[in-house]
Amino acid sequence: MNSNARDLGSFRDPCGHVYEKDGKIFRTVHDAGFENYVTVRDTGVIEALQKKHFLIAGDECDPVSVGLSMPQVRHVLEHPRIPFVSYPYEWSFSQLKQAALLHLDLHLSALEHNATLSDASAYNVQFKGAKPVFIDTLSLIPYEEGTLWAGHRQFCEQFLNPLLLRAHFGIPHNTWYRGAMEGISACDLSALLPWYKKISWNVFAYVVLAARLQDKAIASHSESVETAKKQSLSKAQLTGILKQLRRWIAGLLPKSQGATVWGNYVETHTYASEEEREKREFVARFVQQTQPSMLWDLGCNAGEYSQLSLESGADYVVGFDFDQRAIERAYARAQEKDLAFLPLFLDASNPSGGQGWLGQERKSLTARSNANAVIALAFEHHLAIGRNIPLMQVVDWLIEQAPTGVIEFIEKTDPTIQQMLALREDVFADYSLETFTQALVSRARIVETKVVSKHGRRLFWYDRS
Fold this sequence. Notes:
Blueprint lengths: L3 E3 L11 E4 L2 E7 H13 L1 H7 L7 E3 L11 E7 L13 H20 L2 E3 L7 E4 L2 E4 L5 E3 L9 H18 L4 H6 L6 H7 L2 H4 L2 H19 L1 H10 L4 H16 L14 H4 L4 H18 L4 E4 L5 H8 L5 E5 L2 H14 L3 E5 L19 H4 L4 E4 L3 H5 L6 H10 L3 E6 L5 H6 L12 H9 L3 E7 L6 E6 L2
Parallel strand pairs: 10-11, 10-13, 11-12, 13-14
Antiparallel strand pairs: 1-2, 2-3, 3-5, 4-5, 6-9, 7-8, 14-16, 15-16
Helix pairs in contact: 2-3, 3-4, 3-10, 6-8, 8-9, 12-13, 17-19
C-alpha cells in the first residue's frame, strides 16, 4: 500500500473505511456511523469486549493529526496491525468453528450492554496466532427491543452452513467458500441433505426451514417484505437463539474421512532420528541468524518446524498446507502451546487470487505476502512431481516469497518420490539436483547446503538480498 491507502475490502460500509497510513492501521468513522458509534461507546460495551479480547483495540485519534481529515469523517480509530490477514476459505474447520463461537460470544456480551451487531460477516474476524478477534468496531450498534437479528442469514451462510458441510458430509468448506465468497446458502445445503438428516430439529430450523423461506421470498418478494416488517424478537428470545446456536456449533466435529496422505507425516517420514536432529539444527541456525519478524512455513504439516522457528527467534509464523488433517493438528498445536503461529489451507498450485469487486476486495496471497523468511521443507516435489509444474518455475516461485529461506530438495530416488511415481509415468526428465541448483543460483546466493538423509535430501539456505 502507499502512504495513505484505503483498504479495498472496506468500501461497502457507509459508516467508515479502513486505511493504512505510514504502516499504521486506521478506521474512519463517518457521519453515517458517528451517532451509533458514540452511543455504543458510551454504554461501555467496546471497552468491555476489548478486555475480554473479543474485540480489537482501538484508540481514538484526531482526524487532522493523522492526516485523514475529510468532509464525512467525524472520528478516527487506530487499530493494532493484524500480522497476517486471512480469509474464511483459508481456515481449517476448527478455525472457522472458533471464529463462529467468538462471533456468538461477542454478540451475547454486546446484548448485555444493550448493543447488537448490524451484520454477521465472517470476514470481520481475523486471527492473531491461534486466537480469533473481531475487527469491525462499527458493526456494533445500539439494540432496539423487538428488532430481528439482522445478521441471522449471513451467520448461517458464512459460519454455520460451511461447518455443517464438513460435519455431515466430510467435505471441507474451503473450495466451495472460495468460489462463493458469501458462503453456502441454505438452499444449496438443504438440497444435499438426505431426508433423515433433515428431521433433526437444528438442521430443520436453520437449514431446511431457512431454505423454504428463501424460496418463498423469491416467489413473492413484496409479500415477504411486508411480513418481515411485522415480525419482532425480544432480547430474551434473541439471547436464547444465540445460546442455542452456540451449544450446537460447539459440539460440531468434522466427519471422519480416515487418514489423509500427509496427516501422519511426523510419524511416518523417512528420516532417521540423527538425520532429523541435523535438519532441526540447520533450520534453527538459519532462524537464529536471520531473526525474521514474519516467517512462512510452506508445507507446515503439524507445525513442528513452525514451533521450532518461533523457539529459535522468529516473531510470527504463518504455516500453509494442503492436507486438512495436518492443518487441524497444526492449529491444535498453536492453541495448546499458545504460539504466534497461524496455520492456513493452501493449494500452492492454485493459491488464493484477488477476488470480489474488481478482483480486489479480497487480496491475493501475493498481495498479502509479507514474509522476511521462508522454509519449504519436503515441499517442492509436491509441485514439481505431484502437479507437473516445471522445477525451474517452482524454485522461482519459492524464492519470490521471501528474500531469504531454506528449501529442501528431494532426489528422485527418494522413497517418497518413488511412491508418488509408482502408478504413473516418469515424465520428469528435468527434475534433478543440477536443475534445482541452476535455478536457485540464477535468482539468489546459496549461503549453505547440507545433506540430511541417506537418500540424499539436501537443505539449501538461500539469500537474494
